[in-house]
Each structure stands twice: as structure tokens, then as C-alpha cells.
Amino acid sequence: MQNGKNIIVRYATDDDVKYAEHICQLIFESAKARNTGIAKREPSYIAQKMTSGKAVVAIDGDKLVGFSYIECWEHGDFVATSGLIVDPEYRRMGLAARIKEKTFQLARERFPYAKLFSITTSLAVMKLNTRMGYQPVTLDNLTHDDEFWKGCEGCVNYDILQRNNRRVCLCYGMLYDPRQAEQHKPSRWAPYVMTVKNVFNKIFRIK
After folding, report:
1. Sheet of 55-60: strands edge to edge?
2. pLDDT score, position 205
3. Is the model's pLDDT at 34 over the cut of 70?
4. Which of 96, 98, 106, 150 lies at a C-alpha separation of 20 to 30 Å from 12?
């Protein structure tokens, strides 16, 4: 049983291209097992994400056990975090969260002003997104770039997306807007204000 202690989660490099076919196989097997829509990806597409500095890999020794990537749309106004996959033997050890957080970090570093979005059918991914500040939205709040939605053509649920004019599908949309996140960011003085308030309430027994 793997414990995940020796797994390295890092940004992908040119040397990781050798894992592209294996990643595509993991994506295909996951889609088949869940009978839901994970869009099909070609090895050349995965390799391009690695060589352009837009991917994250999880490595155990010389074995790839997890992957995710980012893609920018509408001239960098939107960035998608996509393709999160974990080898079945390495699940339930927090690896998906580590990959997701690293991918989020990569997107924020490369495109600090972009709106980040994710579409998923996974409750676990939705929970991870929420923890990082994503908000649930209908799909029409995401990029309108036709090239992005063409990537869904290999999904078994593509007809549902088309019938609903790309507004709703079996996937859920989630959006992180850095401007809104900054507005709702707690003040650095917030802990001190709460401490003073708690002391004040105790002294005067305010309920």
C-alpha cells in the first residue's frame, strides 16, 4: 500500500513528455470506469502542455502517478485548470489535492490577472476548488472561446452541452476571479480586531 510520502508533485518539464501516452491512458480508463465525460486528449496535446510550462506531474520514483494542466483562453482573460488525474493505485492519500493546489499555483504565477475556471463532475474536485476560493457558476460564465468547447466533443455528454447552448451540462462550472478574491480577502488586522472584540464582550458580558 502506497503512503504518498515519496511522491514529488512539481511543474512538468520537457523530460516528462515520455509520460504523455500513459497520461492519456489514465484519462481514458477513468472516463470508462465512471461512464462520465472526461474529454479525450491526444499524447501530442499533453506533450505540448508539458513543453510550454503549463502542466503539473506527480512522480513516484520514475513512475508518473498524477497529472494536471492549464490552458489560457480569450487572450489570457480566462485560464482553465483541466485534466486532473491520479493513478488508481495512488488514490485516497491526498494526492489529488496536492496536484490541484500546484496547478492553481502555476496558473496564478503565469496568469495573475486571469479568471481561473474548472469544469468537473467530481465532488472531490469541487470541494478542492471551493477551498481555494472558486465559486460555482453556470457554464455561460466561463470562456466563450469556441476552441475550448471543441475540447468537449470527445465527451459522452457533449450532446447535452449542445442542447443547452453551452449553459449547463453534467459538468459543473467553477470560477476563481482574482479581483473578487482580493475584495473578500480578510484584513491583516482581522485577528486582532476579533481578539479585542472577544475581550470586550467578556468584560461587559455581551451575548
Report:
1. 8-11, 55-60, 63-73, 78-86, 115-120, 172-176, 135-137
2. 56
3. no
4. 150
Q: At what angle do helices 43-51 and 20-34 cross, to 10 degrees?
A: 120
For the entire predicted model, the pTM comes to 0.78
> Which grid coordinates are listed for 159?
450532446
- For 129, the grid coordinates are 476548488
Cα-atom radius of gyration of the chain, to the nearest Å? 20
- CA 57 vs CA 31, 79, 127, 158, 188: distances in Å: 19, 18, 21, 28, 34
Residue with cell 490541484: 100
pLDDT at 191 over 80: no
Model pLDDT for residues 63-85, shown as the tens digit of each residue: 999 999 999 999 999 999 888 99
Rounded distance between C-alpha atoms, residue 67 and residue 64, angstroms = 8
In this prediction, residue 140 carries a pLDDT of: 93
